[in-house]
Amino acid sequence: MRTIFKIGEYNEGTNCISVKFCRLHSTKSIDDYSGILVSCSDLNTSTCESFVKSLMEKSGSRRITRGEEGEPILDSNKAEIITGKLNINDLVGKVIEANVDVIDPRNRFMLPMREVTL
User: Fold this and answer.
1) Nearest residue to 50 via CA among 17, 83, 28
2) Contact predicate 40/90, CB 8 Å
3) H/E stretch holding 73
4) Contact 35, 19 (CB under 8 A)
5) What's the rounded Cα separation, in Å, for the pair 75 and 29?
6) How far apart are CA 53 and CA 30, in angstroms?
7) Using one digit for the tens of pLDDT, what is the confidence trace for 52-99?
8) How far apart are CA 45 and CA 60, in angstroms?
9) What predicted TM-score, i.e. pTM, was given to this entire model?
């Protein structure tokens, strides 16, 4: 199932984001969903991909209900896929796509690593 989320605000002081989640093919606008506060301290912020995955594992997948993929995508729910270096301030107000199938049911996850010299 493809899902989207939208970061409404980022508070650098508390390192928290206000975020809304919904299905990509939802018949309601993402702006009509209620938001929740999520602490970025508990998320993997090393890359955009790891940020999206950890956010969906922590909060998003539980907030998304199953629906039909045949529903049309509303203009306000047109999402983008983010990659590369993470800057949360650049994500505020954007609708971002995440794939729930990426989440591992056995709770395996990527470990952030630095270069290893042998």
Assistant:
1) 83
2) no
3) none
4) yes
5) 8
6) 19
7) 888 888 877 666 654 445 567 888 888 888 888 899 999 999 999 887
8) 16
9) 0.61
* Structure tokens belonging to residue 19: 């975020």
Helix intervals (H) in 27-85:
48-55, 61-63
The amino acid occupying position 55 is L
Q: Which residues pair with 10 in a beta bridge?
A: 17
Strand pairing class (36-39; 2-11): unpaired
Distance CA 2, CA 115 (A): 33
Give 4-62 pLDDT, tens digit per residue: 899 999 999 999 999 998 888 788 888 988 888 999 998 988 888 889 888 888 877 66
The answer for residues whose C-beta is within 8 angstroms of residue 79's C-beta and 6 or more apart is: 4, 24, 95, 96, 97
Distance CA 16, CA 52 (A): 15
Q: Which residues is 4 bridged to in the sheet?
A: 22, 97
Tokens 């989207």 found at:
4
- C-alpha atoms less than 13 angstroms from C-alpha of 50 in its C-beta half-sphere: 17
